[in-house]
Design a protein that fits this description.
Layout: H1 2-19, H2 28-36, E1 41-44, H3 51-61, E2 65-69, H4 73-85, E3 90-93, H5 99-111, E4 116-119, H6 127-135, E5 138-143, H7 165-169, E6 175-179, H8 184-194, E7 200-203, E8 211-217, H9 221-230, E9 236-240, H10 244-256, E10 261-264, H11 270-281, E11 287-290, E12 303-308, H12 315-322, E13 332-338, H13 342-352, H14 356-374, H15 379-386, H16 400-403, E14 406-410, H17 412-424, H18 431-439, H19 444-449, H20 465-477, E15 481-484, E16 490-493, H21 495-501, E17 508-512, H22 517-525, H23 532-549, H24 553-556, H25 559-568, H26 573-578, H27 584-609
Parallel strand pairs: 1-6, 1-7, 2-4, 2-5, 3-4, 5-6, 8-13, 9-11, 9-12, 10-11, 12-13
Antiparallel strand pairs: 14-17, 15-16
Helix pairs in contact: 2-3, 13-14, 17-18, 17-21, 18-20, 23-25, 23-27
Bound molecules: adenosine-5'-diphosphate (ADP), magnesium ion (MG) and zinc ion.
């Protein structure tokens, strides 16, 4: 009893003094306790959930060196930098090191002073390294991005298969594996492939409360992005696009409008890709425009928005990409521009797939994404239900649906007009033509086909185009009708639609006002107001220090840490130590510089107030 209490106290003590955090995030404490008790662990936590701490903290409290296996070289360096900034003795070994640096790390490892060693999986195939491991005292193995071991996952890395030798060769050492990939199949596969020994398993909630989800109708997407960025001046963010051409054109457009933006896609030479990623990581440019090739290699915690300018192919990908926003726990915005015009492009690719089963799955995944974007239900609730979770509240307060004013209206009559126009033209036409028929448009096509003589022609001419788009959108989302065909999709009735057309089932739609831009912003930042002028100053200090120390700015202090300073104005080292993310080592290193800036700001303010 008393031992567990005292170890509990020492856990919290380390959390506060080394990491500068007040409390554990959900599941962290249990995971740490199990590793300390030398039990294997399998942890599924969303991006930004705080997986690193789960192995870094026990590494500090246990005898010997913790070996962390991580798939990406670029990430390794940042993680080692971040650990060293907190005063933790951390090193990495990978192909980017020269012979001299390599033997220096080997020397440190033999001396037993290293607490955290990051390595790439291929090192397990090197006999010299394995011999070294056998000589060392190892506290634990942590396998990050563990889904890379599964062929069922989307990032399979054959090198990861070598990790199955760990439990066999080091039977006494606990192994902790982590992933943000949620599917059950991949999870079981990971446990089996590594050979985890009845691991303590946790699955954290995938809810990310600080992310605001919004879906907007896509029209002139470049202009729309530009307008959005006006509200997010100087903030870091990612704009995802589907194709390389689109990436280039959007990056060029934004640059031409005076926004610091760089492109990232697999077609660029690798040096350029790395350079652009680094510039984004170091806050030298605020926006990176990228294909989905971008993301796994960054741990940047101050990404304030993620924009999807094109429709994603599946929810898993969309969720992982949006998950890169707001890792520091501060509010961040996820915006998807949804246009039905994107659907045929994706369907076209899906139809190229030769495997029937794969094609069906891809189509179903696309349909899920379309439903997510077009259905008027809480985005958070929809996303979480996709991961098998039930979101308990009626209103999440942080999505466009929950913050917009919504009103449920009976759209049965208008729905019947649309479906009747479809039926009377034998369900052989797409959205545009059906709208023309309903609105009584005198187009060439209507004249050629003689559609002006059908009974519903012009039945909806007293209402505008937007209204009919809304009705058709609702019918599609609720599956009264569906789109059939890829290049020129036509509207077809479902069984449910036939019932509604015959008046057997009413149709309801949710009419909502677009949330006002200013109102939305106020809501997002509610309770989180900070002195923005001061933030600019502290951010400049952070950037200067980061450049001096050759690390990304967020490694010095996160946005959350700076925001707190701009809320509470710490004036003494003791005040400063209370701020989130300020541990002993960082207080010692950077406390005085930031306190100096804060005091100068206060004094200036005092003068200008007189
Ligand atoms: P993951 O690897 O799960 O995506 P990270 O380990 O990179 O997430 O952590 C995400 C962010 O959360 C980091 O900025 C980290 O410093 C912060 N963090 C982790 N644990 C805590 C905690 N207990 N309290 C506050 N912030 C935390
Ligand atoms: Mg991580
Ligand atoms: Zn909601």
């Amino acid at each position: 009893m008393s031992t567990s209490q005292s170890s509990n106290t020492s856990l919290h003590h380390t959390l506060r003094t080394i990491f500068g955090f007040e409390s554990f995030r959900p599941n962290q404490a249990e995971i740490v306790a199990n590793i300390l008790a030398k039990r294997d662990v399998f942890g599924v936590m969303p991006t930004g959930g705080g997986k690193s701490l789960c192995y870094q903290l026990p590494a500090l409290l246990m005898e010997g060196t913790a070996v962390v296996i991580s798939p990406l070289i670029s990430l390794m360096k940042d993680q080692v930098d971040a650990a060293q900034e907190n005063g933790i003795s951390a090193e990495f070994l990978n192909s980017s090191l020269g012979t001299r640096e390599m033997s220096e790390v080997f020397r440190k490892l033999r001396s037993g002073t290293v607490k955290l060693l990051y390595i790439a999986p291929e090192r397990f195939a090197m006999s010299q390294f394995m011999e070294l491991l056998q000589e060392m005292s190892i506290s634990l193995f942590a396998i990050d991005e563990a889904h890379c071991i599964s062929e069922w996952g989307h990032d399979f890395r054959p090198d990861y298969l070598a990790l199955s030798s760990i439990p066999k060769q080091f039977p006494e050492v606990p192994v902790a594996a982590f992933t943000a990939t949620a599917t059950e199949k991949v999870q079981q596969d990971i446990i089996r492939k590594i050979g985890l020994r009845s691991p303590f398993t946790v699955r954290a909630s995938f809810n990310r409360p600080n992310l605001f989800y919004q879906v907007a109708a896509k029209s002139d997407v470049h202009q729309q992005i530009l307008d959005f960025l006006k509200d997010h001046k100087d903030e870091s963010g990612i704009v995802y696009r589907t194709t390389r051409d689109a990436v280039e054109s959007t990056a060029d457009f934004l640059s031409s409008q005076g926004i610091k933006a760089l492109p990232y896609h697999a077609g660029l030479p690798s040096e350029e890709r790395e350079k652009n990623q680094e510039a984004f990581n170091r806050d030298e440019v605020s926006v990176i425009v990228a294909t989905i090739a971008f993301g796994m290699g960054i741990d940047k915690s101050n990404v304030r928005f993620v924009v999807h300018a094109d429709l994603p192919r599946h929810i898993e990908g969309y969720y992982q990409e949006t998950g890169r926003a707001g890792r520091d726990g501060e509010p961040a915005h996820c915006l998807l521009y949804f246009g039905r015009g994107d659907i045929p492009k994706i369907t076209y690719f899906i139809n190229q797939m030769s495997d029937d089963a794969e094609r069906t799955i891809a189509q179903e995944k696309l349909n899920q994404t379309i439903r997510f974007a077009s259905y008027n239900a809480c985005r958070r609730k929809q996303l979480l239900s996709f991961f098998g979770e039930t979101y308990p509240l009626d209103n999440c307060r942080t999505c466009d649906i929950c913050t917009g004013s919504v009103e449920k209206i009976d759209i049965s009559t208008d729905s019947q007009i649309v479906m009747s126009a479809m039926a009377r033209t034998n369900e052989r036409f797409g959205i545009t033509h059906i709208m023309d028929v309903v609105m009584g448009a005198n187009t060439q096509r209507v004249r050629d086909l003689g559609h002006s003589s059908i009974k519903t022609f012009g039945a909806g001419k007293d209402k505008d185009k937007r209204h009919w788009q809304f009705i058709i959108g609702e019918l599609l989302a609720q599956e009264f009708i569906r789109q059939d065909g890829d290049r020129y999709p036509v509207l077809k009735m479902t069984a449910r639609g036939s019932d509604a057309l015959r008046g057997k089932e009413p149709v309801f739609g949710i009419k909502r006002e677009e949330p006002k831009a200013s109102g939305r912003r106020r809501k997002i930042s509610e309770g989180a107001a900070f002195d923005e002028q001061l933030f600019e100053k502290l951010r400049a200090v952070r950037k200067r220090l980061a450049d001096e120390h050759h690390v990304p700015p967020y490694v010095i202090f996160s946005d959350k840490t700076l925001h707190e300073m701009c809320r509470h104005y710490p004036m003494s080292p003791a005040d400063m130590r209370q701020v989130h993310g300020v541990g002993d080592v960082k207080l010692e290193k950077y406390g005085a510089v930031f306190l100096g800036e804060l005091r100068a700001y206060r004094e200036n303010e005092g003068r200008s107030n007189k």
